[in-house]
User: What shape does this take?
Amino acid sequence: MNPRQPAPRVMNGTAPESPIESAQTVLQIEDLQTHFFTPVGVVRAVDGVSYALKSGETLGVVGESGCGKSVSALSILRLVANPPGRIVGGAIRFEGRNLLEFSEPEMERIRGNDISMIFQEPMTSLNPLYTCGKQIAEAVALHQGLSKRDSWDRAVEMLRSVSIPEPERRAHAYPHQLSGGMRQRVMIAMALSCNPKVLIADEPTTALDVTIQAQILDLMRALQDKYGTAIILITHDMGVVAENADRVVVMYAGRKVEEANAAELFDNPGHPYTKGLLGSIPHLDTAARTDTKRAKLNEIKGMVPSLFNLPQGCSFAPRCGLASDHCRNHKPPLEEQRPGHWIACWHADRVLGGVAVGAA
Amino acid sequence: MTALLEVEGLKKHFPIHKGVFSKVSGQVYAVDGVSFSIGRGETLGLVGESGCGKSTVGRTLLKLLEPTDGTIKVGGEDITGLGAQAMLPYRRRMQMIYQDPYASLNPRMTAGEIVGEPLIVHNIGTPAERRERVAGLFERAGLRPEAANSYPHEFSGGQRQRIGIARALALNPELIVGDEPVSALDVSIQAQIINLLMELQDEFQLSYLFVAHDLAVVEHISHRVAVMYLGRIVEMTDKRSLFEMPLHPYTEALLSAVPIPKSSARGRKRVILTGDVPSPINPPPGCHFHARCPYAMPRCKTDVPALREVIPGHFASCHLHDGGVKVPLGAAA
Ligand SMILES: Nc1ncnc2c1ncn2[C@@H]1O[C@H](COP(=O)(O)OP(=O)(O)OP(=O)(O)O)[C@@H](O)[C@H]1O
Ligand SMILES: Nc1ncnc2c1ncn2[C@@H]1O[C@H](COP(=O)(O)OP(=O)(O)OP(=O)(O)O)[C@@H](O)[C@H]1O
Ligand code: SF4
Ligand SMILES: [Mg+2]
Ligand SMILES: [Mg+2]
Assistant: This one.
């Protein structure tokens, strides 16, 4: 294991000479396709997604609920249940080697060691029958070869680092005896305990209040600075994305529809879906307070298309205010509209030009 | 507004056992004397640090957990001591949207069966009417109709959350305890659900206890907001006063730690609170917040500040206001 130089953090996202450019790519996902074969048809949950990740970098992944963010993350670790799920195409290169060609024992060594994951729903991955301390200690013992005693101490120390009060006592608690946010932090402690090269964080802070959230994100950043960890940050919290991500991938219905450096994405969204998404964020502002009648929030009207049966053209067309016949009939390719800014939309130039994208 | 729900002095303590058969070695003071009321057609937002007791308040007031102490009244009737049978009619009027959808949906039932189950339990409608009602609920929660035949594990996290929302709405309840009901949703679907909840409220005078960490969402949907810290309410008032003039230092810290969804936020440091999070097993004496409070005074370490009406309609428990209201909180004495 070669200790890599941590990439310095870029404070101004628009810096043209980002030092991250020169860092080494740790993980590369190429044209990943993960489908579910169900009795009623094939669900194309991930349908040709590519992205790359450099050490020390944080990649934000955002998108509509159900668009394939978690399934693509689980695919990286080959944790999609088969059947009914199967990775039917693409490659996942970790330090140059395709994980899809690894044997199961080889994968076991990668998981939780080189690549670890904070799962979206803690109860899916915490064992209800074991205390939290034991679960972390076992992970530590397995991957770092520590003694029983030392791994327990390490577990307690990890619980303390994620702000669990009285960790010595709480290490003896079972998952159901903890609050939602405490369970989430137990999982974070477990994922961070082995200093992974790649950390996949799937909605890591949804159950946390903003002050503890800030501490946890700081902890993740400290780990990143120290070990050059690359982070995939999947989240619905656009504030968390804005503060932490170097680049952002936007997904819609199993595909990547936009990718850009974070500042560029927030300032100049180029896909109508991204623009609608940013427009739906509720802001803490006086507008909502001064009105005696509560204002309606902006929303993107309509529903994501069925993944059994994706429209022929652009998947977003049924909900898009700019959709033309061409959009409905032809899938827009992902194109580099500006340096480093990729967009899959026939009307990207108009969106970048500032045209309103009102609902269909 | 007449109060639909009145909670007085609510406590919930969990015993800690050392080992499976051995004696109780302590208590988790999860909820330790909480009082509030919610009017018809009103939303009370409930915010606070992770682990401070919000979910326990919700589950105890619906009597999914037995309260240790205190009273719970619904429409003026005391339900605190009612047994399972006597609770049944109240169960129909009060529903919960759970924080952890994965753990709260039966894995062996399809989404359609889950949403329709309360209708069967309470004997409502014919099978055909129930199917129609379920279809309508799916649509309102933003779920595709064909999803009714899928099992919980076949959904994404946010889709599962919407199944829980549809189930809670099935019986046209009067009170919904929403425990982080929208935190698993992307902002666009979140907006749809919040708009839906506000519409239903205006139409049917629904009452909500809305637990959430996203303060912008809380600000949007609530009429009043209560802030909890380590088992107690430390501040409660209408949302405008709370967001514009927080009177408790914890509320102030919370508001200033909100992440900003703008490109200029890159790399922003917002760790405001340092110091160890106090434990509900050994709550500190005096003000629960004193070890982390930037304004703590000697008396904060020994005297418990009472929750009192510092300004008409604005309750706070903090010694800073003992000699009259002090704003800003950090002003020289
Ligand atoms: N076992 C399964 N069988 C069939 N379909 C599945 C299965 N698991 C996931 N899916 C489908 O795959 C799609 C992608 O799911 P995924 O969990 O990746 O969404 P997501 O982007 O993470 O959403 P969220 O933001 O709500 O977590 C969803 O539409 C879901 O219904
Ligand atoms: N069944 C239980 N046994 C023992 N302790 C419990 C139990 N349920 C909850 N607790 C404890 O009660 C306290 C309050 O938990 P609760 O779930 O109400 O917090 P919360 O405010 O909802 O937090 P979060 O925002 O993280 O969901 C926590 O310290 C938790 O560990
Ligand atoms: S009572 Fe004292 S310690 Fe508590 S919040 Fe007020 S000033 Fe801070
Ligand atoms: Mg997900
Ligand atoms: Mg909770």
Q: What stands out?
A: The longest strand of chain B covers residues 24-39. Chain B has one domain: 3-93+173-331.
